[in-house]
Amino acid sequence: MKNTNTLKEFAKYTSLNVLGMLGLSCYILADTFFVSQGLGVNGLTALNLAIPIYSLVHGSGLMLGIGGATKYSICKGRENRKITNAIFMNTIYMAAIIAFLFSAAGIFFSGAIAEALGADSAVHAMTNTYLKVILLFAPAFILNDVLICFVRNDGNPRLSMIAMLGGSISNVFLDYLFIFPLRMGIFGAVFATGLAPLISMVILSWHLLKRKHEFHLIKTKPNVSLMRSLLALGFPSLVTEVSSGIVIVVFNVIIGKLAGNTGIAAYGVVANLSLVVVAVFTGIAQGIQPLVSKAHGNGDPAAVKRVVRYAMTAMLILSCVIYICIFLFANPIADLFNQERNALLQKIAVDGLRLYFTGAVPVGFNIILAVFFTSTERVMPAHLMSLLRGLILIIPFAFLLSAIWGVTGVWLAFPTTEWIVSLLGVGLLLLRQRN
After folding, report:
1. Cβ-Cβ contacts under 8 Å for 53 (sequence gap 6 or more)
2. How far apart, in whole angstroms, are the C-alpha atoms of residue 201 and residue 144?
3. From CA 69, how far away is CA 380, in angstroms rounded?
4. Which of 24, 275, 310, 383 is the most buried (most CB within 10 A)?
5. Could you read off the pLDDT of 112-171 as tens digits, one per residue?
6. Cα–Cα distance, 68 to 226 (Å, whole number)
7. Half-sphere exposure in the Cβ direction for 394 (13 Å, CA)
8. 95, 61 in Cβ contact below 8 A?
């Protein structure tokens, strides 16, 4: 009976979170499609140059949301209800500070950031516009991430999923409306993206209006010690998102030197599809997080093992299906984003899709394992894995392999890194079981 109940809870939380994360990933994917159709190669290049800043904003929101909600769920499992509201309020305090810094950067430094990201004269204006609006909407993105995580850990994964899907569907509709009928260009694309978290929060407000929710706005002083604890738990999520943005910058620079703006646009196709694939595995990982944290708080290691086993099995099946589909349909996928029928863009993108996603299995394994470590309050292995796969290994591999094999080497840097880190993850897991 325990196994059956655990499987039902796993299926409920992960399926809802995978759907929600897929919807959330469509924020940028919808922009990619509509920008490529409406603004061509330069628009796609500008969008890809700006994505790292979106990753930084979203990563900051996830760091606060995942860190705060994980601590919240563990305290609930231990029947420590007095601190749960303090956890929520300290998460909100940190969200306000970080959101203010992002908004200030959007007002004063968006042009300089666009230049630093590699925008040349052909795409600087569009990149600057996208960055400015994304940064001004940072408070909405960050608060939405926090609320989604807390609502999910408060026993309402269905509403979290509906909110994520609601925001994403509205983004797709508004993208089309603003770019084509209203002809608002790149501003229309980013404005639609910025409105999405506001719509999501309207949906989430239903949970806050119900009397059953267990986190509330209260008067409490900021607790520096508690904030450090929340940041430590959420740090791997930040590293995952921020490192993806840094990797995009590095890859843009390398590919730009090897294949120019057309190569950067082709990488935009690969990078944005990668956001969707990673969203699937992140959905599984975030789905098991409340279950693992609660079981850990209750002192039930058998339940923890069952949930993780289910997650790894689902990841393995999905990753194999994903790679087979990408390999078989790489041409039509690239063609969707190649409105100008650029032969060079098509070739680079197709080759990239088939090589890059050979890392599908290890990236899923690494994401789930890092969340497992975090949810059981073992932050150091999670930090190590996140830093290695996000920064320490992939960037040197990108330069080294590209020097040997050109653009092909760039594509191979991602799977090489993920496979190496997954082997390390297995070692860390075995070491944990022995201790």
Report:
1. 113, 117, 131, 134, 135, 245
2. 6
3. 19
4. 24
5. 999 988 888 888 999 999 999 999 999 999 999 999 989 988 888 889 889 988 888 888
6. 9
7. 29
8. yes
